[in-house]
Write a structure and sequence with these properties.
Blueprint lengths: L11 H4 L27 H17 L8 H21 L3 H8 L1
Helix pairs in contact: 2-3
């Protein structure tokens, strides 16, 4: 839900779609701009989701970008994320707050 208190004379904000959003860095609460996500996955399900996301990312990558080096980079990032999750024994809720 979004709230913006203005005087009646400023109805143009709604009529002309002139709503301005603050940049996340300008907010005084770092979690105020955090996305709403389903953070109920356990560790195994969360790792499976990350693997599926990596597969989807690779499958939607432009053919000219599908080089062995880029595939190795994707696999290295996936491996690092899984190690981080295992080492910290975290759930998706913690991981998204810390890294999302």
């Amino acid at each position: 839900m979004l709230y913006k208190y203005l005087i009646v004379d400023r109805v143009s904000v709604l009529e002309d779609l002139e709503v301005r959003f603050s940049q996340p860095r300008a907010l005084n609460d770092p979690f105020e701009a955090s996305p709403l996500i389903d953070a109920t996955l356990d560790q195994a399900d969360f790792i499976k989701k990350i693997e599926l996301d990596a597969e989807e990312l690779w499958s939607t990558t432009a053919d000219k970008e599908k080089t062995p080096g880029n595939y190795q980079l994707l696999q290295a990032q996936l491996h690092a994320a899984k190690l981080d999750i295992y080492e910290k024994n975290v759930s998706s809720k913690y991981w998204f707050r810390a890294y999302g």
